[in-house]
Amino acid sequence: MQKYPTVTIDLLMDEVKKYINDEKELDMINKAYEYIAKKYFGMKRLTGDNFIIHPLSVAYILTDLKADYATISAALLHEVMKDESVTKEELKDMFNLEIAELVDGVNKINKLSFSGDGESEKNNNRKILVGLSEDVRVIFIKLADRLHNMRTLWVHSEEVQKEKAKETLDILTPIAHRLGVSKIKSELEDLSLRYYKPDYYFSIVEMVNKTKSEREMLVSQMIENISKILDENNIKHEIKGRAKSIYSIYKKLDKGKKFSDIYDLLALRVYVDKEAECYQVLGLIHSLYKPLPKRFKDYIAMPKPNMYQSLHTTVIGIDGNFFEIQIRTYEMDYIAEKGIAAHWSYKEHGSNNKASMKNTMEQKLQFFRTMMELKKEANSDEEIANTVKEDFFKDTIYVFTPKGSVIELAKGSTPIDFAYAVHTDVGNKMVGSIVNGNIVPFDYELHDNDVVKINTNKNAIGPSYEWLNIVKTSQARNKIRSFLNKVDKEKYLKNGQEFLNKELRRKKLSITEFLSQENIDKILKELKLNDINELYINIGSNNITATQVINIVNSETISKEELIIKKTANSSLKEVKPNKNDIIVRGIDEIKVNVASCCKPVPGDNIVGFITKGYGITIHKSDCPNTSDVSDRLIDVYWNENISQKYETTILVRSITNNNVLLDVVAKCTNNDLNVKSINTINHDDEVLYELTISVINKEKLDKVIREIELINNVKSVSRIIK
């Protein structure tokens, strides 16, 4: 187990003073230490160490990133708000607003564990993003906090070890990668693998150690040979052997590679002063050793989004061994190690410089800006969590704007995804796209190095619902939904107002009197709505009827349920009048009718009406098990001969494989004019389940599609779902 220094205030301050010389800032760090020294006096960690070792270690880790005084101070104080005995206001008064906000940001993230599924996970991803979008330094403190806790993870149970290791790999190391802090990222990955998959970890360590002496000898010979040719060409340089992390070896082995086939186990890193010298060195090395085809990468000309720059090449070196060689300037190496934190600078002082530093950091990281947008665009914690996992933590491609700017996108992205990545308005006004000089359809899959031009029109009507099925990134999908929701709300708002006014006029009620503040308050309270606009939207979208709203104010002495039962009992089928509604209730001309979500009947199904308490009648299939014990509240209802709309229902497709089955199922639905609203895929050991929500005009059409789907290869069965 690696040994780490026991951090004291003296050791911490020695490191801080290497790059901070402002006495006031140094005093603030000391003040933070004195505060926690009193607060944590006598407290111990599970390791047996004094508790104060933890905040000191977190702060010490951040000195390697040259963190500013406020970040160091906040790192020392990062847990003082944990027990709620200290408030943000108190910290502001004792220190300053900047430090208080950083500590508060860390506290928000730490209130719940990052691990867990469902709502817990969504909430915590939300907290990560909120913390990041407010101040990126909060995340640096969190990463340092987690790194020190991982170093002492051995004190916990195996269950806790695996839990913390998994959440670190799933959430925190990808963020560390995006921020470019490779040193922290690599150590977090190795420590996580050590506890999450110890067998893998120690077997790799054993394999590495077996060949260590041989590799060290080969590396030494390569360094000698390359140094000789660089000296002959008067290039000032430094060459070091580069150890590959255990986790990076694991990832390659996990993909099926053999240990002997990993090219970069033998690796060198060449450091020079100037960018031009990087390319000189590359040419000289290739003149000495044959390069492997397709293994050259120029991250200098096209840096990674986390600002990483370097030349990568793999050559056939001594005795036919493969060597990966990285070539970079000292400045590039500094940024590669520190990432975005390289923009902490103490060359100048004062608030203007700090603001400039923060702006520079934000400008350098597309990921950071995207998160800030996401916070505004997303409608829920679930959307945010899904966007993080789907867009930010999966394979990426790099495409260009016509002016040469690099845009990072998730693999499989389309021109629509590109347009929304550039700007929301570009996506909303998009009318076409040109890739590498050729006109392409909206669903064209983009590839690395594509040059993409988006044609826009200020009079464009905006995205359609079909775009939601085309885009690949959650970011674009959220922006499209946001646009469509806004359009729909405006339409529903106008329609709802018209529906209510029309119904009031039909009932010969005064619109002005009915919409008195007293009546509005009564309606909103009854329906649990926030304002009158929300009321109109619900009426316009048919969530509630205008009659239902009027009845809240003009309530009868007899209950709605009693009235329905009385009317239907005294009526016969012959008395049914011509009706514009899709579903006819015997004896009642107008009443709110809802289709049950459990069995989702469609026109042509045998149906019954269930009298609900206060919400009209819910329509169920006759064989729905949810109506078996409520026969006294069931009434006869019928489908109208003329159906005005499609109805949603859900089918379950069981398949023995997922090979193209879903595509065939969707094609059958589309060919039969059935709209697929949503798809949920469930993988089991012996079968794959597809849960499809579709909209259909009638049962005859639905039955036809089911029969066709049953004939698809590898499909075991198809059935309608009743929940």
Structure at a glance:
The protein is of the alpha+beta class and 723 residues long. The strands form 5 sheets. Strands 1, 2, 3, 4, 5 and 6 form a 6-stranded mixed β-sheet that branches. It is globular, with a radius of gyration of 33 Å.
Question: Can you walk through the features of this model?
Answer:
It contains 28 helices and 20 strands. The two termini are 53 Å apart. 48% of the residues lie in helices and 15% in strands. α2 (23-39) packs parallel to α4, α5 (88-94) runs antiparallel to α6 (97-110) and α9 (158-179) packs antiparallel against α10 (182-196). The chain is α+β, with helices and mostly antiparallel strands and 723 residues long. The strands form five sheets. Strands 1, 2, 3, 4, 5 and 6 form a six-stranded mixed beta sheet that branches. Among the domains are: 9-196, Hypothetical protein af1432; 209-341, Beta Polymerase, domain 2 (2-Layer Sandwich); 556-645, no CATH class; 647-720, ACT domain (Alpha-Beta Plaits), CATH 3.30.70.
Which structural class is indicated by helix and strand composition? alpha+beta
Question: Percent of residues in helical segments?
Answer: 40-55%
What quaternary form is this? single chain
Shape: globular
Can you identify the CATH superfamily of the domain at 9-196? Hypothetical protein af1432
Sheet of most strands: 6 strands, mixed
Mean pLDDT: 80
Tell me the CATH topology of the domain at 9-196: Hypothetical protein af1432
Note the beta-strand portion.
5-15%
Distance between the termini: 53 Å
Question: What is the rounded Rg?
Answer: 33 Å
What is the CATH level 1 assignment of the domain at 9-196? Mainly Alpha
CATH architectural grouping of the domain at 9-196: Orthogonal Bundle
Low-confidence stretches: 112-120, 122-127, 129-133, 345-366, 569-578
With helices defined by DSSP (H or I, 4 residues minimum), what is the helix count? 28
Q: How many beta-strand elements?
A: 20
